[in-house]
Automatic annotation (TrEMBL):
Pfam families: 2OG-FeII_Oxy_6 (PF20515). This is Tet-like 2OG-Fe(II) oxygenase domain-containing protein. The lineage of its organism: Eukaryota, Fungi, Dikarya, Basidiomycota, Agaricomycotina. Keywords: Coiled coil. Residues 78-132 form a coiled coil. Residues 1-71 are annotated as: Disordered. Residues 18-28 have a biased composition (Basic residues). The keyword Nucleotide-binding does not apply. InterPro entries: 2OG-FeII_Oxy_6. Residues 253-461 form the Tet-like 2OG-Fe(II) oxygenase domain. It comes from the Eukaryota.
Length: 520
């Protein structure tokens, strides 16, 4: 035993315990343990070897492997079958969707065909009515499309009115002032007056193009919400005129063009009434500036000027509501005209008159593209027959009567003061021989006209004491489009525009300089 170094001889009891445990394990696994080897039989350094795995054990492992492979193959086949079923269902769903789309397209085509047939039928009736001088079906059709009641269709005959226009201009030259419907030489019998409440649409006899629209709504016939919203905008506009600088260079109020054409050497008469403007224009009096806000009135003492600055600031901020009302009014009266104006403004980045500043910090200065200016007239304003220098043939405006409080000098709208308090002042579109006879109208008058393509103008008027007729219009001016393009080419340089804050700062500095000059 001394030949086995450092290997203790286990007690017999321990060896028996191991043998017993080994027997139990082998019995449970199906193997018969060998009992013919003892520790005493081992050679020095020899260890007990496990029983050799025979052919039976290898066969079982092979079978387990085959079963695992078979299960994997079966699972893959099942997955493939499921995917195939899903693909088939998707194909069925796609086919069903195609059938549904085709069915809907067929239904729409049938509906469109029926609509076109109905449109053609109604069109024939309208043309027949027009031939007979009756327009009831056309008016009903327009009522359906606009949702407005009391529609009156006026068909403008296809005739050359150049002789009519030239006669009017000759009369203006002869009188050296804008036209008056009271003038015995005015062709009143050749002119169509519009003054009744309702929605008036003037269309060309052959092309059926809309030439002019006018909506006359007495205040008492408006629903309360509409009236309050419109009056809010109107009071903002009237207050703005008490702070804005008057427009002294409007070409429609000058006599120069008529004098040149008639070769008469006459002095330029004094303009009739007042004109104001809010919004953006291409300034001519500020060197190096491409676009600017219209200015604050600088007349009066320091206290008066401070009050005007405050009114200008407050009312300009309220122009957002004014823009909303005019936008909605044009959209309701003439949807196509609204779309043309809006798309042109967006295409050429024309800022709305209610946008006070240009956002030059974020690369897109225009926040709201719309009409860049709103013009306002009062105090028996009148001008000559002319065409505007607008970018597009879309102009839209409101007319109403304002009463001035003799104590506060502020303007208000009152039921007892209506258009009959101002005689004359018709809006004459000579191009079509149509005039809006305000004196016989009531309430709010809205007009759409083609300002840059049709001769038009406001005739002379006479107002009762304490009242005036306000007239307004919104438009995209050609100068503003050119100014915006120049500013864009200049890299949107913020030093080349004058926004609302700068305009107020200039007005404040001017007032302070006037104060200092007066003290010195």
């Amino acid at each position: 035993m001394s030949g086995i170094p450092n290997k203790p001889i286990l007690p017999m009891s321990t060896s028996k315990q191991r043998s017993s445990k080994s027997k139990r394990r082998r019995s449970s696994s199906g193997h018969q343990p060998r009992t013919d080897i003892s520790v005493e039989e081992l050679e020095p350094g020899q260890a007990v070897k496990p029983p050799d795995a025979g052919p039976s054990s290898r066969a079982k492992r092979q079978k387990r492997k085959e079963r695992t492979t078979a299960r994997y193959v079966a699972a893959m086949q099942l997955d493939n079958e499921i995917m195939a079923m899903r693909d088939a269902q998707s194909d069925l769903d796609a086919a069903a969707e195609e059938d549904r789309i085709a069915s809907e397209a067929l239904q729409k085509a049938r509906e469109q065909e029926a609509h076109e047939a109905e449109y053609e039928r109604v069109g024939k009736e309208i043309r027949e009515e027009m031939r007979q001088g009756q327009y009831s079906v056309a008016e009903k059709l327009l009522q359906m499309f606009t949702g407005m009641n009391n529609i009156k269709l006026h068909v403008i005959r296809d005739e050359d009115r150049q002789q009519y226009i030239q006669a009017l201009k000759a009369l203006e030259t002869k009188r050296r002032q804008p036209l008056s419907s009271k003038d015995p030489e005015f062709p009143l019998t050749q002119t169509l007056p519009i003054f009744q409440p309702g929605f008036h649409i003037c269309v060309h006899e052959k092309t059926m193009n809309i030439l002019l629209e006018c909506r006359i709504t007495p205040w008492g016939e408006m629903n309360m919400k509409e009236r309050e919203s419109k009056l809010q905008a109107i009071h903002t506009i009237m207050a703005f005129t008490q702070s804005a600088n008057g427009i002294k260079t409007n070409g429609s109020q000058t006599f120069q063009d008529h004098a040149k054409k008639s070769n008469n050497n006459v002095n330029k008469p004094k303009p009739h009434g007042n004109m104001f403007a809010g919004g953006w224009h291409r300034t001519k009096g500020e060197r190096g500036v491409h676009l600017s806000r219209y200015t604050v009135d600088k007349s009066g003492g320091s206290e008066t000027r401070q009050k005007k600055i405050d009114i200008y600031s407050e009312t300009s901020e309220d122009f957002s509501h004014v823009a909303e009302e005019y936008s909605e009014g044009l959209r309701r009266m003439y949807p196509l005209g609204y779309n043309v104006l809006k798309q042109h403004a967006e295409m050429y980045d024309v800022p709305s008159f209610n946008q006070l500043e240009m956002d030059t910090l974020h690369g897109k200065p225009i926040v709201n593209a719309f009409a860049n200016s709103i013009t306002i007239t009062n105090d028996d304003f009148a001008n000559y027959q002319h065409m505007d220098r607008d970018a597009i043939a879309i102009a839209y405006g409101w007319w109403w009567i304002g009463w001035q409080d003799p104590r506060t000098k502020t303007w208000h709208v009152k039921d007892e003061y209506d258009h009959d308090k101002v005689q004359g002042g018709e809006f004459l579109v000579a191009e079509h021989g149509v005039m809006i006879d305000f004196s016989r109208a009531r309430g709010l008058v809205e007009i759409f006209w083609r300002g840059n393509s049709d001769h038009h103008g406001t005739m002379r008027s006479t107002s009762s004491e304490g009242v005036t007729r306000f007239g307004t219009s919104i438009q995209i001016t050609a100068d503003a489009v050119a100014g915006m393009a120049a500013w864009k080419d200049d890299g949107y340089n913020p030093a080349k525009i004058v926004g609302h804050a700068s305009r107020l700062e200039f007005a404040w500095d001017s007032m302070q300089r006037a104060k200092s000059k007066k003290r010195s």
